[in-house]
Amino acid sequence: MRIAQISPLYEAVPPRLYGGTERVVAHLSDALVDAGHDVTLFASGDATTRARLVPMRPQALRLDPTPTVLKSDLAAHLAMLDEVRRRAHEFDVLHFHTDLLHFPLFADIAGRTLTTLHGRLDIVDLPAAYRRWPQFPLVSISHRQRQPLRHANWIGTVHHGLRRDLFLPPSSPRGDYLAFLGRISPEKGPERAIEIAKRAGVPLKIAAKVDLADRAYFVERIQPLLDHPLIEFVGEIGDAEKSAFLGDALALLFPIDWPEPFGLVMIEAMACGTPVIAWPCGSVPEVLDEGVTGRIVDSLDAAVAAVREVAGYDRARIRATFERRFSAEAMARGYLELYWRLLAQHEGPVRATAA
Predict the structure, then answer these.
(1) Torsion of CA 207, 26, 156, 132, to 10 degrees
(2) Is 0.85 surpassed by the pTM of this model?
(3) What is the gyration radius of the CA atoms in the chain, in angstroms?
């Protein structure tokens, strides 16, 4: 099958540091190539991929080494979508990861497209937009993500996956600290994580990105809490550091306070054999197997109690659950089922080519 993967241009594929969507695109593209398909990736030129790369700008937008030069994410993405449209006849399936930005340009061939929605959907302007373009087949990354847009043209849910060899559990995990990984923002719950660690009397290491939009929150609310002897702020880390950071942790704290569409960091921890302690928001009940890969709690007291409980979890079983449910191969199989369904429904030369 000839498949086009169209990635956002904000981060490299995969991201050098923090980033979710582009990481998923990277692992999906490679897994599809490994499965024998002809994959073309539209992304920034700093992508690392086994697919055929079509570079749409030299570097990803966020880490572009020319910060003094003004950049237009809208212009970059529109140019990419125009290039994809120009070459659309080369592909059996066009898989978009750019929200709904491509809808006006591809409305006449919507049946040959698949759009994975990676973000939150409880936004006031979205229902009208998806009613305007109902012909586009959509994929959710969790069943819970769909709730604000129940009327939309959903054709499947495919959970995220990661390469099996990306993170490996350490042979002798230390398990002497708690981990917080991701982004510093109120909805991610860093203040909760700090309070849990202090109450449990266990060190906490925070490896997190601080966006400009959250800088004031970090300075005013989080920095004053970092003086505690149990709390260590590591900063933003990339994949190369995650195996040790997550694998040596007693548990990952995921005390979110928002409708998380998926939560990639949960399966990153599971890949390292590390249990997760999380609040029951968004996709969490779908991703975690209660009592196996982690605990779902709804209070600080319950979270503190869970710290000691998860210390006894079978890390090999956690890793095995990751491989079964959240490997890149499992994700690719889910998407391939949807691709073939689209081809079966699509009449014309593309269907004949696939046959």
Answers:
(1) 90
(2) yes
(3) 21
* Amino acid in the structure at residue 25: V
Question: What residues contact residue 100 under an 8 Å CB cut-off, 6+ apart?
Answer: 115, 129, 130, 133, 136
User: At the topology level of CATH, where does 178-325 sit?
Assistant: Rossmann fold (3.40.50)
Q: What is the pLDDT of residues 119-174, one digit of tens each?
A: 999 999 999 999 999 999 999 999 999 999 999 999 999 999 999 999 989 888 99
**Do 178-325 and 2-163+327-354 have the same topology in CATH?**
yes
Rounded to whole angstroms, the Cα distance separating 92 from 83 reads 16
Rounded Cα gap, residues 244 and 249, in angstroms: 8
Q: Is the pLDDT score of 238 beyond 90?
A: no
Q: In CATH, which of 3.30.710.10, 3.40.50.620, 1.10.3210.10, 3.40.50.2000 is domain 2-163+327-354?
A: 3.40.50.2000
pLDDT in tens, 299-328: 999 999 999 999 999 999 999 999 999 999
CA 265 to CA 19: how far, in whole Å? 10
